[in-house]
Design brief:
The complex is a heterodimer. Chain A is α/β, with parallel strands linked by helices. Helix content of chain A is about 40%, strand content about 15%. Chain A is built from 14 helices and 13 strands. The relative contact order of chain A is 0.16. Chain B is α+β, with helices and mostly antiparallel strands. Chain B has helices spanning about 5-15, 60-75, 80-85, 90-95, 105-120, 140-150, 155-165, 175-185, 200-220, 250-265, and strands at about 25-30, 35-45, 50-60, 130-135, 140, 225-230, 235-240, 270-275. The longest helix of chain B is centred in the C-terminal third of the chain and has 21 residues, at about 200-220. Classes of the chains: A alpha/beta, B alpha+beta. At the A-B interface, helix 9 and helix 10 of A face strand 2, strand 3 and helix 2 of B.
Chain lengths: ~400, ~280
Amino acid sequence: MNVIYVDNNATTMVAPEVLEAMLPYFSTHYGNPSSMHSFGGSVAAEIKTARENVAKLIGAAPDEIIFTSCGTESDSTAIRAAIESYPDKKHIVTSRVEHPAVKNLYETLSKKGYRTTFVPVDNHGRLDIDYLYDSLSDDTALVSIMWGNNETGVIFPIEEISRQVSSRGILFHSDAVQAVSKIPIDVSKTGVDMLSLSGHKFHSPKGIGALYIRKGTKFSPFMIGGHQEKGRRGGTENTASIIGLGKAAQLAAEHLASNGYKPISQLRDKLERNLLKMIPNALINGDTENRLPNTSSIAFEYVEGEAILLMMNEHGICASSGSACTSGSLEPSHVLRAMGVPFTAAHGSIRFSLSRYNTEDEIDKILEVLPPIIERLRALSPFWKKAMSS
Amino acid sequence: MWEYTDKVKDHFLNPRNVGVIEDADGVGEVGSIACGDALTFYFKLDKSGKIKDATFQTFGCASAIASSSALTEIVKGMTLEEAEKITNEDIAEYLGGLPKEKMHCSVMGRDALEKAISCYRGEPPKKVEGQIVCECFGITDREIERVVRENQLTTIEDVTDYVKAGGGCGNCHDRIQEIIDSIVGTARPVRKKAPVLTNLQKIRLIEESIEREINPTLKKDAGKLELIDVDGNRVLVRMGGTCASCVKSPVTLKHYVESRLRELVSPEIVVEEVQQ
């Protein structure tokens, strides 16, 4: 059975060009970039190129980039660096719809005595920006707001918010793990002081991420060790993955420059438009005006997400769900709850996230398979008939 | 991804007995859309009082649908007396087991069956018994007690897996722990329910225990224990004989004297040594 992979916000396929670029660094080019000999030195030169490519993708300077092991490490490093740099400030701000990498760290810090503000969103997942500004004070050490939401794809106006926050002398971090490579980002035109990105969300392998730290930003390392990354992150470099990330960043920049996301958003829109047409009581979660071009979160009322996913799985279709049952928790996703999506819809929300490797045939296949699945599950559901007759 | 057995997958993908029985003899509804799963169970009896037909409608995940389907298959052909003995464990077993986090699906099946039987017997719908412990999922102390007893649960996580209680905000975790403690405690075979003693009876019992049980044992090592006072559950004693100078006497006091008095008198007893 062919796999139809529309779960690219979870992870992506390693691009063949990326894999090819990485392979020598597992075998013939195994030198340590810190070594004095040219066998290791040649690897250092490749890492330099990778750093330049990652920097270019987000409008940064190469020495503003440090490599990390993943998006979560980047987030943790940034947040902990901010509060360590301003030990007298005890207030930190974020949104209610962050990825657990930020959300759970904020909750932990809140238990350790930090005053935390979780800025709410409206029904479309749009940030209450005035609420954010009103919460700021001289005691605020950090504002951390994601660039694009992993579940709904909603994009926050980070350029504007970061400039406002920065003008008040408060550090601004953005978890841009989902946004990088999908929309143009130029940190030099923003007030963003730190930004997290993750390789496996744009066709490089898992286990590699990066953190942008604006020149002049107070910083203290999370991993202390050798002189690697200019002392900002100790530990021998994950050479092959860094080179893979560099290659993926180069491909992503080319892709963005050639407007490569347009066909992806057209496929996404086709999928969404037709599903809404074919399936009654289906709703889009989130602000469709400001949304990542590859993401669609659709709520199918009166059915449960895990059941939908497993029936799609029988056809080789891979997506994900905001429902409680899939995650092992008992409540639907905190993102959908923060948006006030009613329970009738939240439990039946499915996220489709596309990549440049998806084809129109695949979208057609989903359109053929999914409507009967929803119909079947609704026939099983005790609520569907009641809802329809009232 | 959950590890479902082939039987769960089969009952999810090909659910048996889906639908409504319009002239059902008993109907049981449990769950709600807010909670993420809900089941309506119907049965019809034949002339001899056996379940002739059973159907369901379920909103929920794969294991909720499979558990409902399994329930209808299990009860067919049973009398109501037989059916009411079915436990959630029976439903899970029929499916070759459920992931622990999904056991609440089997509990939902059993609850729906019970409700349907009560409905048939014309029993008034049971009022919510006990007090709500978990506000998020509306679970009472009675429900938690029952599931802890029937499935020998020992942790808060277990309780959440079986009835969802504690799976939301987490504010009720302390209360759930208390319930578990009270049951795990009373279920221990050695701990008999201690009779309520008056102060006078308690003091006499302590005196007797020391005379008959404790001192004869200590005497083997030429030791002796003298009762000084009893203050509630605090028993004040003085160690005499060789015990007075023995470095091990604090150990003897805690491990032997106190545990013996706890067995013989009351589990709340605390023994303290009064210095010479």
